[in-house]
Amino acid sequence: MPDKLTTERTKSTPVITVPDNASPALIKIAKNNAMHWQLGFDENATHGLVLMQSEAHLALKQLDEPKVGEVFVDFASDALTFRRLHGGGKKEAVAKAVGLKGQTDWRVLDATAGLGRDAFVLASLGCNIDMIERSPVVAALLADGLERAQHSPELSAWLPERMHLHHGIAVELMANWNSTATNVVPDVVYLDPMFPHRKKSAAVKKEMRLFQQLLGPDEDADALLAPALALAKKRVVVKRPAGAPFLAQQKPHIEMQGKANRFDVYLIN
């Protein structure tokens, strides 16, 4: 989720809290998480948007709307497991857009990682993924999901080696990517900036509702395209809602239309 300072874009920064009667060990974990991500900690939070640290996971939760549920990263969920095993593999739209056919060890930089689902699908197909997330709240959710995946019998053998999280501002990190010795220049840069939802809020998925409360749309998304084009070796792929304008008003070489989304592909000569 792109550019500008996180504090400029975040509508309200949630604190990390714990359930009632949390153990001292859990409280310590929550405090350490808050310190690591430079977030507040409030053991007695009772309202608003919070990061709830439970024994099971870290989750984004709106305490004022208990029926909305919570959002957390679970790469071993039934939905992602089904998508990994039966989602179409390299025939899946995101795989086609990225250009996986006939490729092995494709290096992809997902510069707007979010909850990491597309990155996970690409990693499950053999890609090495670097993920950038600028929001400390979303990055904390991602880091928690990656840590738990290390203990999953089905994921631990490959996921930790293929998915790597970078917390920071995407435009800046991409511009300086080659100055860090451990960074590998990506074949593909993948962009999926947040886009305003025009539907009534009740029709929008719970996680998108919470994300809109937390972050709002990426008003500065256009700034991502130029550094992405300068960095990628093969292509830049932009995921957009079907009716959305081109990023930075720049027409892509290929448009892959879907029912709800569109992949705009910019080829690097």
Percentage of β-strand residues:
15-25%
Looking at this structure, what is the CATH superfamily of the largest domain? Vaccinia Virus protein VP39
Overall number of structural domains: 2
Mean pLDDT: 89
Order of helices and strands: HEHEEEHHEHEHHEHEHHEEE
Helix-strand category? alpha/beta
Number of strands: 11
Strand order of the biggest β-sheet? 7-6-5-8-9-11-10
Based on Cα principal axes, name the global outline. Answer: globular
User: How many DSSP helices?
Assistant: 10
Secondary-structure arrangement, i.e. CATH architecture of the largest domain:
3-Layer(aba) Sandwich
Taking pLDDT < 50 over at least 5 consecutive residues as the criterion, the unreliable ranges are: 1-10
- Round the Cα radius of gyration to an integer and report it: 18 Å
CATH topology of the largest domain: Rossmann fold
EC number: 2.1.1.242
Subcellular location: Cytoplasm
Keywords: Cytoplasm, Methyltransferase, rRNA processing, S-adenosyl-L-methionine, Transferase
InterPro entries: 16SrRNA_methylTrfase_J (IPR007536), SAM-dependent_MTases_sf (IPR029063)
